[in-house]
Design a protein that fits this description.
Number of strands: 0
Shape: flat
Number of domains: 1
Distance between the termini: 24 Å
Oligomer: single chain
Radius of gyration: 23 Å
Order of helices and strands: HHHHHHHHHH
Largest sheet: none
């Protein structure tokens, strides 16, 4: 079937619109983040002005304090965020209908799917207000990845190469891209956990890292978020690797050939397995485990960009000339 250029155009428009909306959300979240106070500071100021929950006296009208600017911007950003995610998902569906195939045939489409998975995962795991300050650090890398996908890695809508014309494409690549997107949130959480450890609760700091850290959730909360998301992503990504091996046997007559993509995927999977093991091992479950999780995240990025673009292999389907 011929490519539906109209739907593809709408898909590209939805993708660009989602990026612009995410930029707007990030700007509002930065205002919220920079205006927010640490919990200890807010408590001290509340005590200093005699704040607290007090009943109004006889003949007095109890007035409700106006919401802080940080909260107002945070609420607006979170509302607009849903619009961005809806446009992001729409770009995927429109691309698929426009090319009459599952939209995972090149790196542009893969990154679009992975970043959408990261944002949806963020909604699931960070819907609570206590995680709102973390959205700045999730949306920022998503914007960078989407910019690279749209400006550097974009591939014109076309049928996939013959090697990808298989029912395994939507199964294998979807599972891998969703797992990769969840790992993005896990890696960000571990990085923020390491940053938060540099600024213990209750201590003030005048340097930039300290100012950034003291507005984050406490270290335990960040560590639990990294662990929970890895617990979800690890079996998903592992299933994707196994399904890829089954597809390889069907397409190339062998389950595993140590192709660069296969090898790097296996290394990343082993690193995440090591993280989960370290997280349950006394003496490793804090800083050391977090660094292993960060190493797994770096391996995923290396696999996505260096292996796909620089290294030649059987999985070189980046869609680049």
């Amino acid at each position: 079937m011929p490519i539906d250029e109209t739907l593809v155009g709408y898909s590209n428009l939805a993708f660009k619109s989602a990026w612009v909306v995410y930029v707007l959300v990030l700007a509002m979240l930065i205002v919220q983040y920079s205006s927010a106070q640490s919990k200890k500071t807010a408590e001290r100021e509340l005590v200093a002005v005699g704040g607290g929950d007090r009943p109004a006296g006889p003949g007095k009208i109890e007035t409700k304090a106006p919401r802080p600017i940080a909260e107002r911007f945070g609420n607006m950003a979170f509302s607009v965020l849903f619009v961005g995610i809806a446009l992001h998902l729409a770009s995927i569906f429109l691309r698929g209908f426009g090319v009459h195939r599952f939209p995972l045939g090149n790196m542009y489409e893969f990154i679009t799917m992975a970043t959408a998975a990261a944002m949806v995962t963020g909604l699931v795991f960070m819907y609570d207000r206590r995680y709102r300050s973390m959205w700045v650090f999730l949306i920022a890398p998503v914007l960078v990845l989407m910019y690279l996908a749209g400006q550097v890695l974009y591939a014109e809508a076309a049928p996939v190469v013959p090697a990808l014309k298989s029912y395994w494409l939507p199964i294998h690549v979807t599972v891998v891209s969703v797992g990769s997107g969840i790992f993005l949130l896990s890696g960000v959480a571990s990085l923020l956990f390491l940053l938060r450890l540099r600024q213990p609760e209750g201590q003030e700091s005048s340097n930039l890292l300290g100012a950034l850290a003291r507005r984050l959730p406490d270290a335990r909360t960040l560590d639990r978020l990294a662990y929970k998301t890895t617990i979800v992503a690890f079996p998903i990504f592992g299933t994707g690797v196994i399904l890829g091996a089954i597809w390889a046997e069907s397409a190339w007559g062998r389950f595993w050939g140590w192709d660069p993509k296969e090898t790097m995927s296996f290394i990343a999977w082993v690193l995440y397995a090591a993280y989960l093991h370290a997280r349950a091992t006394s003496g490793w479950r804090d800083t050391k485990a977090a660094w292993i999780n960060v190493a797994g995240f770096v391996a995923m990025l290396f696999n996505l960009f260096i292996i796909n673009i620089v290294v030649s292999g059987l999985h070189s389907y980046a869609g680049l000339n």
